[in-house]
Fold:
Amino acid sequence: MPTHQTKTNGSDASISAASDNNLFTMSQKITINFIAADSRSVLATGKIGATLMEIAVSGGVDGIAADCGGLLTCATCHVFLPEAFAAQVPLPDAEELSMLAFTAVPQKPNSRLSCQIKLTAALDGLTVELPATQY
Ligand code: FES
Structure:
């Protein structure tokens, strides 16, 4: 028996750029499972090349505020990436690392700012956890 509710949102985050090593078409949709601190989950879909934050916002994921719209100035798009997917995304750059110091919930080793993670086909089915608050 599931321990949490799952809601599916058919969001359609826009594409800003394709990954150079992306072997799939830009129109391919992938699904991300966002798990809130209270264990509720929301499935959101979006296109390759969008950011994790864009999929969350367009999919109505409550736990992502993204106040700066992806300009890397707010740290309100904080997520926790599972270790299994950590190797599938580039490491955070110095600017993201410095902004992670300003998250409302203290950062963990697997903390990332979702506006800095571009979606690739390898991330289809990714589950990310959300902090209890972004403020
Ligand atoms: Fe503001 Fe990610 S949306 S830092």
The chain is about 15% helix and 25% strand. Residues 1-6, 10-23 have pLDDT under 50 and may be disordered.
